[in-house]
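pasting input
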Amino acid sequence: MLPKAHLVFSKLKINLLKIENTLACTLGFQQHPPLDFNIAQVQNKSFPEPKTLTKLSLKELFDTSILWAAPKGRKTLEKRQMNRYGFKDQVWKMLMPRTDLTVCNTCGYTHHKKTLCGNCYAKVKEETTKLQDKIVAALGLNPVDKEVVVLYKGEKENASDEFYKTHKVIEVEAERPPWFSKNLLQKTTQKPSDSTDVKPTELG
Amino acid sequence: MKFNLCCKVLKSSLNRLSIRQLSSSIQNQNDLFNAELKRQQNAVGRIEKINVVYKGVPEDAELIMNKNLSTPYNCAQHLSEMLCNRSVLALVDGVKLWDMHRPLESDCEVQLLHFHDTDPYHCNRTFWRSCSIMLGSVLSRVFKEDVQVALHSFPSPTVKSGSFVYDVELSLPDWNPTPAELRVLSGEMVKLAYEEIPFERLSIGQDLAEELFQHNRHKLEQIPSIVQQSLDGKVIVYRIKDHIDISRGPMMSNTNHFGRCTIVSAHKIETDVGLLYRFQGVALPKAMQLNHFAYGIIEERAKKLNSGRLPTIQGEYQPAMTSREEIAAPV
Amino acid sequence: MANQAEVTKLVSRLKIPILAKHRRLRNPEGPQGRVKKIRAIVTALFKYERIEVYHYDGDEARGYAERLISDAIRHGDTHKETMEMADYWIEEKNLVHKLFKVLVPRFQNTSSSYTRMLNAPIPHATPEDSHPHFRSVIELRGNPFPPLIQSAVDNRLLIQNVLLEEAKKEYRAAKYAEIAQDLESRANEKSDASSETREDTAEDESQPK
């Protein structure tokens, strides 16, 4: 109990002294203490000696430093708003909801309205490059004089000898991808059927 | 010619813009429907979880849903906005066609069907059926008060027949609709589509069904045979806004799938139940676009009398869809 | 006027839009570099049948490829100027054979353009109003590769196609019935006429008796 009372008493004393000091300064009875008065003195040679401030002259200022341009006038509200938000129809800086996205009906991914669907295209591109490499390797530098047809695994059985004569057949070991529908192709190895009421069964 | 002069028997469109007073019978019907809906929801009791496997685009998913509460539409809400908007119908476990707003009953696998599917047969049929029920809804309220309207039924939907149909008894002995009157009907159909109303499905018992349709003698006559033919002795009713009708279903999820529509003709047909009017129309989903010339051809064909089953006397009533057809044929 | 040559017949009319002024396709090698780039793209298009290039380059080269095919179809491989053009624009000479022996028969009876150009996907973060260097996919029609886009209306099971198909069937049935009736009535007339003539002949025969 005793040390706590002591602490409170000492704080009160310090505060009273401070008030007395401030009053004396403001009323002009006493000078302010010098600035370096507050620095604890350390016995260290490396400590820089306080600089003696010389009076600034305009000429010296121009010689020794770089002067930056500073705004001279007030910017109008329009200008400030334009800088902050941009112009609505040209450069609009705010975040806006996109209006040019659409959803691919086949795969359900979003893409830009005027472009192909990225997800579907990646799939098609991979298969296309694979086929292109095969075709180019098979044709080599020989003159190309036949239509090229790609047959996947299990499809060459249907092709007739005559078909082989009129077409350059590239055989692929893999199965036909399910999304690469045979029916959508123009060229086919199968003979057109005679029946008239055929239902498309292998679409898509 | 002035619009009002063209439409002698139909209510003027302007009058109906004012707040529509529901007639007491319709209000009564809706109260009954709401009470039954609430009762069924309360009867679920403790909520159990079911495991729903979604198969389809953008990717397969597994969802934990509420038994007897969550619908395929709720599943779509978890997956993608696109699925919510375009899905017409759900295919549960690969065999059962399921309304988008009908609660799922057990662990299942769900596929969502839409009009651009590889084989949209079931979507098309559902669309045609939904069009019929929407036509019924329009017919029941579009006539003036002095014309008595009693909806009868509509035959099983066949898209190939070229038109969707609703058979109605009117208290007009000899009425030939003018083109303007037909146009009003078409406009009402499109208005209903703009309102974006979900189809609500409810399975009810015979007593309640008879109470619901006490003002319609045709429906009252049909109910016993429907109950007899159904597997669980229930009657399935659908509600669009305030109109309630009997149909085996399934229906599409929302009226906003409905795009353009023309009601082309109303033929007088003599049947066992008396003189009926067979209203015929043709419509396309919003997702489908067709140029006006091709649409004109379809319209022209729809004017011929639809060869669908004629209404028969009670007891021989055939529901709009037999339970066998509700099970989708394996693709 | 009569002596004036018809300009439309001197140059093949292409089925794709062509700009009024050619693109410069800025290049460190100048105009020579532009031509070099176009030759490379035309050659690659004939070789691979489907390529992805920058939009502006591709659009410029597409016109040259279309013109080559069109000229080849019009004049055939015995026409000196056409052969020179093909020789100039196609860098790999085995593809000159392809132009005349494969592409000409393929496109001889088509009414649409010979090539197709579609916008390649752009990154999702591209701002809506920015103009990035778009890439395009150019392909020769009738290529053996998987289709880039599935047509939204080709499916005959779509509701409008089902309706149209049925309308067509009904129209045909009505027409056939009409024709059949027409034939029947004509046959009846003919039989009537023949019976008349037979009667006439019979009369003629009877007369000399």
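fyi Chain C has two domains: 7-140, 150-209.
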